Amino acid sequence: MSKGIHLIFLGAPGAGKGTQAQVIAEKYAAAHVSTGDILRAAVREQTALGLEAKGYMDRGELVPDGVIIGLIRDRLTSADFPANWIMDGFPRTLAQAEALDQLLSEIDQQLTVVLNIDVPLDLLMDRLTLRRTCRKTGQIFNLKFNPPANPEDYDLYQRDDDQPEAVSRRLEVYTAQTAPLIDYYRQQDRLADIQGDQAMAAVTAAIDSAVQTRL
Ligand code: AMP
User: Fold this and answer.
1) How confident is the model over 137-190, as pLDDT tens digits?
2) pTM over 0.90
């Protein structure tokens, strides 16, 4: 079995997966694979993937499993893919989780731990509608909870799917399709619950300690 840090970040939209994954990826020199970021880049560049994904994303629906699984397979099996990696926003359905298990056994890797970033649903709407991302650096901020110190240094924009209508749909989709993965990984004894409604640094510390105990 090959060594390395292999993390999955589970959690509702707005739970802080992306923010925490950025910090933890830097700390462990891990590749940060965000399927949402990959899809948004494809939409911007108007590739075939982007054209296929755009409608689903705008509606707050999931892109079909086959498309996403293919995209992850390409990365994980590429010869220069780093030994340490973090998945942020994948898997999101049971079919994706099963495909990942199969893929990991093919490439002889094991998940270190699945981090379930738990935030009460009623906090998520504010977090999402006030979220802003920097076009230049990809850094994620929140106008209320985590504002940039010097806003003029950043080129901030609001994601299309952070408008209230798409947000409600994304939260429904999360509850119906992604939340069942919490039990899936708990049964495999790979889950660590992280209380996500604390200060950012406290969430990072809790993640770090969950990773350390599984290494
Ligand atoms: P995110 O940035 O993770 O919130 O993802 C933004 C959007 O990209 C989602 O609402 C979906 O439309 C799509 N997406 C991202 N990851 C996945 C995935 N694993 N499966 C299906 N759709 C995804």
Assistant:
1) 999 999 998 999 999 999 999 998 999 889 999 999 999 999 999 999 999 999
2) yes
Walk me through the domains of the chain, giving residue ranges and CATH numbers.
6-30+82-119+168-214 (3.40.50.300)
* Catalytic residue numbers, as ranges: 17, 92, 131, 159, 170
Q: 161 with 52: CB under 8 angstroms? A: no
How remote is the CA of residue 94 from the centroid of ligand 1, in Å? 14
Name residue 126's amino acid: D
Q: Tell whether the torsion through CA atoms of 96, 102, 103 and 108 is positive or negative.
A: positive
**Contact, 129 vs 60, CB < 8 A?**
no
- Token pair belonging to 56: 């689903």
Backbone angles phi and psi of 208, in degrees to 5: -60, -45
The whole-angstrom separation of Cα 160 and Cα 164 is: 10
pLDDT one-digit tens code per residue, 107-137: 999 999 999 999 998 899 889 999 999 999 9
CA 154 centroid distance within chain: 22
Q: Residue 88 forms beta bridges with which residues?
A: 9, 34
In this structure, what DSSP letter does residue 181 have? H
Question: Measured from the CB, is residue 90 less than 6 Å from ligand 1?
Answer: yes
